[in-house]
Design a protein that fits this description.
22% helix; 33% strand; TBP-like; 249 residues; Double Stranded RNA Binding Domain; 6-stranded antiparallel sheet; alpha+beta; single chain
């Protein structure tokens, strides 16, 4: 998934001025047999433990739909996270994602990065929001009933911050579909949103099938499901880290 833009570091403990930076990089493996996705993440966890890395709090709760491991190196303090889950329950397809965030390092003279970066350290609240966004993606995947496409540039999980708050975002695409398959897939998705209590509206696209924008009143997540000229259906789920702010649609 590539490196996240370099961004401002977290504030210093002594509340002093801090112009240091940190950067993160993530790798996502899709189309994993559901029974093996957790095994892959456990392998990463076990390898990190053998290298002497420490859990941020405790091991993942492996009974959850999307267990999440957070560890760090000593003494240089790189942070690693790994998440796994089943994104297509009927087909048993899983996802495994690994990420690494660097410690703070001095800003170079030529770096023009700003504080609004996707390289944000994950808190427990961030993780809960990310899990919720991934869970919504999983339900949409089941409704579409279309093959999952390998991640393209700009897709996958990410975090963003602006003047209105902090958000987690998950974007992905299906494999190309025929027009008839797209119509059926979008109808199933709309039926899912309506049955689950989402507010649904339609937006014209460059195709004959309009896009769906849906809002979940419970957690203020916003989902966009849009057919493209390539035949792929593009999905994006955005959720505020702390519900109660305004979520841009």
């Amino acid at each position: 998934m590539g490196a996240a833009p370099v961004g401002a570091c977290t504030a210093r403990d002594d509340s002093g001025s801090d112009d240091r930076l940190q950067v993160s990089i993530a790798y996502k493996l899709t189309g994993v047999p559901g029974g093996k996705a957790k095994s892959l993440v456990r392998q990463a966890r076990d390898a990190w433990v053998k290298l002497g890395y420490k859990f941020q709090s405790s091991d993942a709760d492996w009974s959850k739909p999307f267990p999440h491991v957070n560890m760090r190196t000593e003494p240089d303090d790189f942070w690693m996270d790994a998440i796994t889950g089943v994104v297509n329950r009927s087909a048993g397809e899983g996802l495994a994602s690994l990420g690494v965030t660097s410690p703070c390092f001095p800003r170079s003279a030529g770096d023009q990065s700003t504080a609004t970066s996707t390289a944000l350290r994950h808190t427990q609240v961030d993780e809960l929001a990310e899990h919720r966004a991934l869970d919504h993606s999983s339900r949409i995947y089941e409704a579409l009933q279309a093959p999952y496409s390998p991640a393209q540039a700009g897709e996958g999980p990410s975090a963003h911050q602006d003047s209105e708050g902090r958000w987690v975002h998950h974007a992905w695409s299906t494999s190309p579909l025929t027009e008839e398959e797209t119509v059926r897939a979008m109808a199933r998705t709309q039926a899912y949103f309506e049955s689950a209590g989402w507010t649904v509206r339609h937006i014209p696209t460059g195709t004959d099938v309009p896009a769906i924008v849906a809002r979940n009143a419970e957690d203020e997540s916003v989902a966009q499901v849009a057919p493209s000229n390539t035949g792929a259906v593009r999905v994006a789920v955005t959720r505020p880290v702390v519900p109660g702010g305004s979520t841009p649609v």
